Amino acid sequence: MEMLLFGVWALLILIPDPGAAEERFEVSVWPDQALVKYGQSLTVNCSTTCPDPGPGGIETLLKKTEVGKGPQWKKFLLEDVTQNSILQCFFSCAGIQKDINLGITVYQPPEQVIVELQPAWVAVDEAFTVTCRVPRVTPLENLTLTLLQDDRELRRKNFRSLAMASQRAEVTINVKAQWVDDRCNFSCRAELDLNSRGGGLFHSNSALQILRLFEFSQSPQLRVSSLLEVGMAETVSCKVARVFPAEEVMIHMFLGDQELSPFLFWEGDTIWANATIRAMEIGDQELSCLASLGPVEQKTSQPVYVYSFPPPVLEMEEMYPLAGTEINVTCSGHILTSSSPTLRLQGAPDLPVPGEPAWLSLNASEEDDGRNLSCEASLEVQGQQLSKTAVIQLHVLYKPRFEESGCPGNQIWVEGMVQMLACVPKGNPTPVLMCTWNGTVFDLEVPQKATWNHSRTYCCTATNQLGSVSKHIEVLVKGLDKGVSSIILVIFRVAFVVGVIYMALIRNIWP
Ligand SMILES: *[C@@H]1O[C@H](CO)[C@@H](O)[C@H](O)[C@H]1NC(C)=O
Ligand SMILES: *[C@@H]1O[C@H](CO)[C@@H](O)[C@H](O)[C@H]1NC(C)=O
Ligand SMILES: *[C@@H]1O[C@H](CO)[C@@H](O)[C@H](O)[C@H]1NC(C)=O
Ligand SMILES: *[C@@H]1O[C@H](CO)[C@@H](O)[C@H](O)[C@H]1NC(C)=O
Ligand SMILES: *[C@@H]1O[C@H](CO)[C@@H](O)[C@H](O)[C@H]1NC(C)=O
Ligand SMILES: *[C@@H]1O[C@H](CO)[C@@H](O)[C@H](O)[C@H]1NC(C)=O
Ligand SMILES: *[C@@H]1O[C@H](CO)[C@@H](O)[C@H](O)[C@H]1NC(C)=O
Ligand SMILES: *[C@@H]1O[C@H](CO)[C@@H](O)[C@H](O)[C@H]1NC(C)=O
Ligand SMILES: *[C@@H]1O[C@H](CO)[C@@H](O)[C@H](O)[C@H]1NC(C)=O
């Protein structure tokens, strides 16, 4: 500059015509290209070669302050530069004004780079959009946005050729979601290259956005019986098949407006929710299953009918009737919800009038003891025939009784063998048995080694609360060797008789 000034001075000295020298004066501005960060300030030096300049300065819409001056220059501070503008630096020299323009370019580096996936959860085979935008970046002509999917460049966009007014620093692409895209990450890189304008290269990256894919096309399937008994625990199940990721499905189940607490479990691409329900209100209700995954919700409902069906009540006037007495057995159904309940008491001659109990009158006999009586109630609910059965066991009381089968009157023991008296009397309550011989009690519980002196006639007495009965039992003890010899004797005799008959026959046939 000093060299230049020296040259100008030299020129002025060499050329004596001052008018010509002044016509050749120049106006210059420093810097010759201004790049200002948004909101920052700029110092401008406007100078001239005119040896004795007239009025000079700068013309700008920006707020300016003169911060220094010399005979041939003026320096200004421009504050809060927020817009591109053109500034004029002018000087007049001997009545001639010259000016020079300075273009001021405001820049703002990309600070925030935003990537958005819309929607964040995408169904397989559906389209989604990836948008990258950079708020407050300028100048757009020098911006490049690059969308990346897992480090792979998806789209690069620059804004050089497009009309500025209609533009925003934004790039959007539509993609069809495929399984391989699940959990891949999307990001965006913004670059502002101001090298050609005397600035640097600014760049910034967005945070990663992870794409989530899902598949959820089938509605839930409910498994519940259409009839539920009031107060009874019942398992209901809701299944969602072909769903991904199954672990992230949320399932809510309701009976009417009461929410159930299901237990969830998964296998592959299927999820089940099982819940135990206990319906408390009779009538029509609705069981529903609401499954949701990401943005999708699917609901299935099924009507259920809640019925009440208490089991029939089977009763006897007397729990322990005596044999020979007449007892009345009744079977009644509690308040049944249907108008057509049916009670059938096993053994009763005919069906009772609806609403009346079924009854059966029977002469309790010894044979009835231990017998079971049953009563079946049936109810038609929503076209379905339901039945319940009640059973009671008869306990008929009767006096002790000996039967030849349970207590034989003649019993043969084998000498030397361990033997017991075989006698079980009948009776209810179970009778107590006592056997005696010549006033001494014979211990029936202990097995005896049979001896000759066991051959006696015992007197056995069976006793219960209703009475007692006695029976004589004759025990005969036989010697083992004597038994064997008698068998041999029998065989010998049979052989002899057969021989005699044979001889007689031979003589008769061949006389
Ligand atoms: C302004 O520019 C002129 C001419 O180049 C120079 O002589 C002067 O020193 C400059 N002023 C400042 C403050 O830099
Ligand atoms: C910056 O923008 C200017 C004006 O549009 C252009 O001339 C220049 O080539 C751009 N530079 C880059 C690196 O894009
Ligand atoms: C993004 O994807 C790339 C390529 O698959 C992988 O290397 C990188 O770890 C991923 N980043 C995150 C945070 O998941
Ligand atoms: C859930 O319910 C279904 C259908 O009732 C049944 O098959 C399955 O065993 C149940 N699972 C569990 C764990 O209870
Ligand atoms: C048995 O009981 C039923 C119901 O209590 C009654 O209607 C019936 O008359 C009774 N029968 C007899 C023989 O007592
Ligand atoms: C029960 O026994 C009585 C008298 O022993 C008799 O009159 C009655 O008919 C019998 N009832 C039945 C149902 O057998
Ligand atoms: C009667 O029912 C009871 C159980 O209720 C059972 O143990 C018994 O064996 C039944 N008796 C007959 C004769 O069926
Ligand atoms: C029966 O008992 C009486 C008195 O206890 C006794 O005198 C008699 O000998 C006994 N008879 C036999 C056959 O043992
Ligand atoms: C029966 O005879 C045996 C000997 O053969 C004797 O020891 C026993 O005491 C006798 N028992 C009675 C009850 O007389």
TrEMBL record:
Membrane-crossing segments per the record: 483-505
Membrane topology of this protein: Single-pass type I membrane protein
Stretches assigned to the Intercellular adhesion molecule 1/3/5 D2 domain: 220-307
Sequence ranges assigned to domain Intercellular adhesion molecule N-terminal in this UniProt record: 22-112
Keyword tags: Cell adhesion, Disulfide bond, Glycoprotein, Immunoglobulin domain, Membrane, Repeat, Signal, Transmembrane, Transmembrane helix
Superkingdom assignment: Eukaryota
GO biological process entries: cellular response to oxygen-containing compound; immune effector process; immune response; leukocyte cell-cell adhesion; leukocyte migration
Main subcellular location of this protein, as a coarse class: membrane
Coiled-coil regions, chain positions: none
Signal sequence coordinates: 1-21
Subcellular localization, as worded in the UniProt entry: Membrane
Single GO MF descriptor: integrin binding
Cellular component annotations (GO), alphabetically ordered: plasma membrane
Family that this chain belongs to: Belongs to the immunoglobulin superfamily. ICAM family.
Protein name per its UniProtKB record: Intercellular adhesion molecule 5
Taxonomic source organism: Ovis ammon polii
